[in-house]
Amino acid sequence: MISWCRIRLPSLGMLVLIFVTAIYTPGFSNSLDLKTQFQSELEALHDQYGFPGATAAYILPDGTVGVFAVGLADIELDIPMTPESCILAASIGKSFVGAAVLALAQEGLLNLDDPVSRWLGGRPWFSRLPNNETITLRQLLNHSSGIANHVDDERFARAFREKWHTLANPFSPEDLIALALDRPPLFRAGEGWYYSDTGYLLLGLIIEKVTGHGYYEEVTRRFLEPLHLTLTTRSDRLELLGLAAGYMAEENAFGLPAKTTVNPGIMAWHPGLEWTGGGFVSNSKDLVVWAKALLEGRAIEGSYLDDLLQSVPTSENDPGTRYGIAVAIHENGPLGLTYGHGGWIPGYSSSLRYYPNHGIAIAFQINTDIGIVDHSTEVIEDMENRLAEVVVAGVRKSDQSRSSSELKQ
C-alpha cells in the first residue's frame, strides 16, 4: 500500500458539499448546538485528512440520533455522500455473529463453552483443523482459538488476485477454512490471542447447524427487523443499493482496481466471500442504534452482558486492551472505558464505539482505506477521539443546563 495521499475532488475543486440530517428527541435542549459542532468537526477532519467522503452518527443517552455526511460518495461522478449512503461495514459485522451465538445460548440451544467438535466434528476436514480437539465456541468468539487468519495467508491473496474478476462469489466458507487445515496451531487453545476471520467462518457454520436456517436469515429476523436497521443489508451480491464507491491504492495486495464500483451501487468484485467475517453493508445511523441496544443489554432477551464482555487480553504489552465476544474493550481511553469494533475491507474503513460511562455511541464510515490499512496516518483514532469529545461535551452542557433550569423552578 502506498502512504496516505490527499484525494482531490476533480470537478468541485476544494468545495465540499456537506449534507446533514438529524433526528431529535424533545427535551435535549442543546441539540442544535451539538449538531452544529459535530458537523463542524466532521468537516474539519475531512479538510485535514482529505478522504473522499464519510458518514458519521451519534446516539445520546436519551436515544436522540444525529446523522451526518461530508464529501463525495463517488468522485468521478460527483455524487455527494448523504446521511443515507452505505458502506461495507467489514468486521463490525462480527458483532451480529457474536449476538446470534449469545442468543442461541440464552435459548439453551448451545453453550458458549461447548467444544467446537460437538457441532462440526462430522465434517470430513475437521480432524485437520488446528486444536480441533480442544477449541470451544467462546475461544472462536474471542480469537483465542489458536487458528490463523486466512486473510493474512499469501495463498489467499494469490487466489483472490486470480479470481476477483468472476461475477459469482469465488470462495465458499469451506474454501477459506481449508487454508487453515494441516497447519500447526499458533498456540494452545485459550493460551494466546490472534485475530481470525477463519474462526468466525467456523461460527457461521455452527449457527446454521444449530438453527437449521441461513445465517443472514437469523440475523435479519433476530436483529435487523426488530431494531429497524433498514440501512443494514447482507453484502452477498454485486449490487448493493446506496453503496458509496470505495477507493484504495493503485498498488494493493489483492490486485484490485483502485475504485470498488463499476457503476453506482455495483461492486467491481464480489464481497460475498466475507460472510461471517463481516458480511454487511451498513450506515453510521444503524451502527450507533445497534451498538446502544447490544451494549446496554437490550438486543437479546435475557441477561447476556456478562458473557458478551467476558474478555481476554490481546497483548501482554497492552493489558488495558481486551477482546470479548466480538467487542474490543479499551479500559484507558481518553474518555474512559470504551467498547466497540473497527472494520476494514478494501476501499472502506469503519469505526463503532460505545462509551458506557457517558451512555453514547458514535460511528463513522469512510469510503477509502488509503492511509488507514497501512497505518500511515492516525485518521481513525483522531476521528474517534475528536467526534466523541464533541458529543460528550454536548451532553455535559445539556445536563448542566437542565440542572440549572430545575434549580430555578
Short overview:
By secondary structure, the chain is α+β, with helices and mostly antiparallel strands. It is built from 11 helices and 15 strands.
Describe the overall structure.
The chain is α+β, with helices and mostly antiparallel strands and 409 residues long. It is built from 11 helices and 15 strands. Helix 1 runs antiparallel to helix 11 (379-408) and helix 2 runs parallel beside helix 7 (197-211). The longest helix has 30 residues, at 379-408. The model is unreliable at 1-29 (pLDDT under 50).
Topology of this structure?
Blueprint: E1 18-23, H1 31-49, E2 53-59, E3 65-74, E4 79-80, E5 87-88, H2 94-106, H3 117-120, H4 137-141, H5 154-163, H6 173-177, H7 197-211, H8 215-224, E6 233-234, E7 261-263, E8 266-267, E9 280-282, H9 284-295, H10 305-309, E10 312-313, E11 321-323, E12 328-333, E13 336-345, E14 348-355, E15 360-366, H11 379-408
Antiparallel strand pairs: 1-3, 2-3, 2-15, 3-4, 5-9, 6-9, 7-8, 10-11, 11-12, 12-13, 13-14, 14-15
| CATH architecture designation | 3-Layer(aba) Sandwich
Mean pLDDT over the residues: 91
Low-confidence blocks of residues: 1-29
End-to-end separation in angstroms reads 61 Å
Q: How much of the residues is beta strand, in percent?
A: 15-25%
By oligomeric state, this entry counts as single chain
The number of distinct helices, counting runs of at least 4 residues, comes to: 11
| Whole-number tally of structural domains | 1
Shape category: globular
Class computed from helices, strands and strand pairing: alpha+beta
The CATH homologous superfamily is named DD-peptidase/beta-lactamase superfamily
By DSSP, the count of extended strands is 15
| CATH-defined topology | Beta-lactamase
Question: What helical percentage do the residues reach?
Answer: 25-40%
Largest sheet features: 10 strands, antiparallel
* N-to-C series of helices and strands: EHEEEEHHHHHHHEEEEHHEEEEEEH
Output the CATH class name: Alpha Beta
Task: Give the radius of gyration.
Answer: 21 Å
